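Batch job 17 of 40 flagged for manual review because the log was empty.
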Amino acid sequence: MLKNKYGFFSKDGREFVITDPKTPRPWFNYMWNENYAGLISHTGGGFSYLETPRDNRLTRMRYNCLPWDRPGRYVIVKDSESGKYWSLSWAPTIDKKYDLYECHHGQGYTTIITEKNKIRGEITYFVPTDLNGEIWKVKLTNLSSRKRKLEVYSFTELLMGNALNDIINQPNDKHFTDIHFNKEHETLLCTRRYWVLNRKVTVAQPNIDWRYNLLFTTTLPVSGFDGSLDNFIGRWRSEANPISVETGKMSNTEITAGDPIAALQSKITLDKKSEIEFAVIMFVVSKDEKNPFKASQLKQLKEIKTIDKKFEAVKKYWDDYLNNVKVSTPDNKFNLMLNVWNQYQAAVTFDMARNSGYYHGGLLFGTGMRDQFQDILGMVIAHPERVRKRLLNALRFQFKDGSTLHNFFKITEWGEKTNHSDTPLWIPFGIVEYLNESADFSILDEVVKFYDEGEATVYEHLKLAVDFAISSCTERGLPKIMNGDWNDTLDHIGPKGKGETVWGAFFLGYILKKSFELLEFRNDSETLESWKAKYEQLRTVINDICWDGKWYLRAFRDDGSEVGSQKHKQGKIFINSQSWAVISELAPKDRADSCLQSGKKYLLTPYGMQIVWPAYREIEDNTGLISRCVPGKKENGAVFNHASSWFVLASILNGDIEFAYDVYSRMIPLNSSKRIDRYEVEPYVYAEYVTSPEHKTENQASHSWLTGTAVWMYRIALDYILGFKTSLKGLTIDPHIPSSWKSFKAERNFRGKRIILSVENPNGKNTGIQSIEINGKSVESNFINPDDYSEKELNVKTVLK
């Protein structure tokens, strides 16, 4: 069993079961569909939103609050005879002693099981696939030998609108809330008469209506309600001891102003050894629907059998999603990540970007273009149609000159143009990866509008992005860094427009080379010739001026001074220049060997590869924010997992497979989180970074869930370690495995086929194919064009040399 002191993975790996609620930090999960989403912690915390977490937040979450992780989605049970009460999710009544506590985080749902005062409670939180809302399904079991009279209090604190405005303008914002109780349907009808949709913080008054009704109801008969937070909680109290729960008296307050809450009271009787099932339902309906109760088919929705069907639909969705890839290797932790949690985290990043999480509060960043075009890597295997739609939408935020917004917000469709040098280049990256998986070349002829004016085909959008990057090079041919590149904290290198990014040069080269096959497919010989010439020019200039003797520099400032040189006291070597020198194939073999060896020597830690060494301990204002970050954390010397994954890829490509897999293994959360009280965050998903040995809190992790690490670790494992390498023409089987693996099996869906791969490694090799069979027939090549086969399943058997 894979476990730590706070919990364990279920036998099938589909759940992480937390057995001690006092985890070092709140450990979260997600529940969502394409429109509605919620974070759910192991104690019922988190927040919900419709479409966007900033502009259409539904429930509150307080940042940096004490106690942690408040407020949340709570069901409190009270024994009417003794007056004792407790929460079914442990919080907020955390001072109570429980006989049993378990939180089961699964895919798209979280179930919390408690036993207290001879009452067993099971509460399952999930978002149905077909409802703009969430359901808290509850089962209460009387474990005692006597009849029990219980009171049930279901409540959550509402926001309904702009979450940023709620923080900065709450005293005024609370004057526009309406909550009324509908007796016929025993439902709280909640809304707001005013919606702040400003594109930024401003005193301007948009004077528009929040266009939704939020309904909060239960399948139990309702004996009391409240819409007022103040009345329900009481003066100088908290969610842990609401006055209404303590006294058993609801104020039945309907409000037209004030801090909103949705709170319902029900009373039940449980015979000895009996149980009851019920549900709490919160969902959103457009105000265009004159009768929200009829529009939502509320009567049917409140039936337990309907709720059970909706939960089964959620589980089936995730069964189907995870079935797209199945692996069985000698490494159980690798299997667990690839089969379940890495795939699942990749799905989360596809829909949440870097926007809606415990560490990314959903207030500032919106959806990043850079993130959007990387995060498709995780979803494109399972749902290429969703990726297609996402690509077409994102291209609307490109300008006609090929530049792009850096990020954008749904609903308002506003964003920022920050002039990060790499942002436009992720457009061709994403489009080519989509084509490699889907072979849907029709997307290239789709016409998409520019953000400023005019329109063009997707293919033209792609070319404009690359040509803009080429045009943004200096006279000597390196890309200008402008306000930063992938490393946002290198933001003071080129404020005058002369600073250059060496990593950006490698990345531009990589994108050019990645596009060659597509240009050939389109018979675009003029562009192909031009881009090949630029690629070779990059090779020349990089190797003429960017080599520092043992590794590649990171950048040049406006004044021509170097960043990332061995002659410096701090920031001597940056990981990305070394990784992408190899990934782009612009480094000659001797320099590739040298720069990766230097990376090994200076950047390797027990948890992965450090992003820069040594960390900055003195401020360098002409370098940027990196030097103001805490040494050993974030971009200033942490094990930044996203960048570390690229070093793994570079090592594989350069032939150092044993080392690559060693680093990959160190990064797997179950390995990097062995000291869980120091590590702190969830041990079942990747974190953005792990503190390096350059800080006294070494091995402390942060910013879990929403990181590009998820898709890169997933696809490096699938494409390079297991060897399913996609291209426009098809699939190449080319494993790169540890020599200790004597065999492995892996399956994946590809263009309507099921590729079932079996690899034998009798001689303990890392790579190199000796023989290959497809459906029992020996073939000469390890390349597979799925169109050449009529069978739905292709059984591929391979023996390594």
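Reviewer: the log was empty due to a logging misconfiguration, but the result itself is present. The mean pLDDT is 96. Unflagging and moving on to job 18.
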